[in-house]
Amino acid sequence: MFDYAARALFDKGQSIGNRRVQLTRFITPGSDGKPILARIILSCCAADGRPTKLGMTGNAPTGLANDAWIQVTGRYTDRVTRDSINDEEIPYIDVESWRQVTAPKDPYE
Fold it and tell me: What is the pLDDT along the chain (109 residues), one digit of tens a residue?
């Protein structure tokens, strides 16, 4: 997910193009209350963990509990919003399909 977010933000999706991507992440509420995707990135240990977040357009899931893990398949979209917590940019993915999955053994990225 970090690779998708970095490419979506820093090269405006040029290196992604129209490729279909598949990401497995958990649901968390966005600042507008709508579900977004997240995964915690660790540089060294859990103490330095920080979330990477993605908004969703298209066939985005609804009605799932926070912390539910899903696998989404979708494509790049140029939509971006700002995180109300840290003012960082949050890129989006245009969801074509999704399914609920069990949490991975290693939930960190």
Answer: 578 888 888 888 888 988 999 999 999 998 888 899 999 988 887 778 888 999 999 999 989 999 999 999 999 999 999 998 888 999 999 999 999 999 999 888 7
Domains and CATH numbers, the chain: 2-101 (2.40.50)
64, 72 contact by CB (below 8 A): no
Distance between CA atoms of residues 21 and 54, nearest Å:
13
Per the document, the length of the chain is: 109
Query: How many Cβ atoms from other residues are within 10 Å of residue 87's Cβ?
Result: 7
Both tokens assigned to 75: 């494509």
